[in-house]
């Protein structure tokens, strides 16, 4: 039997619970019991709903190839100008859920999304919704920096060009400069804008990808483990940048680093086996998690 030992370590987390709750938490649980419990919970623990959210998602299910259900009935609001971190054990569906938000799952054969997803009240999956325009509003930065095999300038200019956002070269120059500045890269590359983007360091390439996403003036930026391929210094630079970008954008970030989630996000959503288990203000999730699965994950007992 695949047993997850769910024991409580009060040495590492200041959690206030009565003795009976604590002893219930000490019971080891098998996966089937956990799944039954998650199925029965009608909504996540904590605070998944917001007034006037940027994204409103209800009862979201995702299937791969009609057989594998990766996301089960997720209800989650994402606020304006917030950084929300999505955490959870490998395979729990964080990336799958993230990709629902800008229909990147449409690009995966056999992937089907069900449920209600609204961006500023507008149905993301409506027939008349153009996924290319949607992805300009909801940009994405991936785990591995993926600059185009083009110059630094052309990487950033690409989106504004295909969306016809500028009337002339001077306007395009301004967007490229402004986007590189917002991504904290301009000073490092201003004398070599025609050099290949792929010639930059990993951290610089990731900031170039962020500049490319910013150049089309998105409203939301989705980040799927954006620093996992970077060293600690490049990671710190990106984390500072995320904090600045929050002034202008909503940011949803999938991360395996709980320290990172704690440093940069205002709210944290904990996923487990495809269910959204808990969502709350980040400091609450990390100091006083309400669900034992969250607690066990953040104290390192599984994941
Ligand atoms: N293209 C695909 N086809 C079939 N199954 C998939 C596909 N992509 C993901 N899955 C499955 O869906 C589930 C959720 O995967 P997902 O990548 O969203 O999880 P995750 O929490 O982001 O994982 P990780 O932290 O390891 O990146 C997993 O069981 C995974 O094997």
TrEMBL record:
Source superkingdom: Bacteria
GO cellular component, one term: membrane
The keyword ATP-binding is annotated on this UniProt entry: yes
GO molecular function: ATP binding; ATP hydrolysis activity; phosphate transmembrane transporter activity
Keywords: ATP-binding, Nucleotide-binding, Phosphate transport, Transport
Domain ABC transporter: 55-298
Entries under Pfam families matching the protein: ABC_tran
Keyword Aminoacyl-tRNA synthetase: no
SUPFAM superfamilies referenced in this protein's UniProt entry, alphabetically: P-loop containing nucleoside triphosphate hydrolases (SSF52540)
Protein name: Phosphate transport system ATP-binding protein
């Amino acid at each position: 039997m695949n047993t997850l030992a769910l024991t409580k370590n009060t040495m590492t987390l200041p959690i206030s619970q009565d003795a009976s709750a604590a002893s219930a938490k000490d019971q080891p649980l098998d996966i089937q019991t956990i799944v039954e419990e998650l199925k029965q919970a009608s909504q996540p623990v904590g605070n998944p709903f917001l007034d006037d959210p940027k994204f409103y998602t209800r009862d979201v299910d995702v299937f791969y190839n009609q057989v594998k259900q990766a996301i089960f009935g997720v209800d989650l609001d994402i606020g304006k100008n917030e950084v929300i971190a999505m955490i959870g054990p490998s395979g729990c569906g964080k990336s799958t859920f993230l990709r629902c938000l800008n229909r990147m799952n449409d690009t995966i054969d056999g992937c089907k999304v069900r449920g209600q997803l609204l961006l500023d009240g507008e149905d993301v999956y409506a027939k008349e919704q153009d996924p290319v325009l949607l992805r300009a509003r909801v940009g994405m930065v991936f785990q591995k920096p993926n600059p185009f095999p083009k110059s630094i300038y052309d990487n950033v200019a690409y989106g504004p060009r295909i969306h016809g956002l500028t009337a002339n070269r001077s306007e395009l120059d301004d967007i490229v400069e402004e986007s590189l500045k917002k991504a904290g890269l301009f000073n490092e590359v201003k004398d070599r804008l025609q050099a290949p983007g792929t010639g930059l360091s990993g951290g610089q390439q990731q900031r170039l990808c962020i500049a490319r996403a910013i150049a089309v003036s998105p409203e939301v930026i989705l980040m799927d483990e954006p620093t996992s391929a970077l060293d600690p210094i490049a990671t710190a630079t990106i984390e500072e940048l995320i904090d600045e970008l929050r002034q202008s954008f909503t940011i949803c970030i999938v991360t395996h680093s709980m320290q990172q989630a704690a440093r940069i996000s205002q709210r944290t959503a904990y996923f487990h086996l495809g269910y959204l288990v808990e969502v709350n203000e980040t400091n609450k999730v990390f100091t006083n998690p309400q669900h034992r699965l969250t607690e066990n994950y953040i104290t390192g007992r599984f994941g």
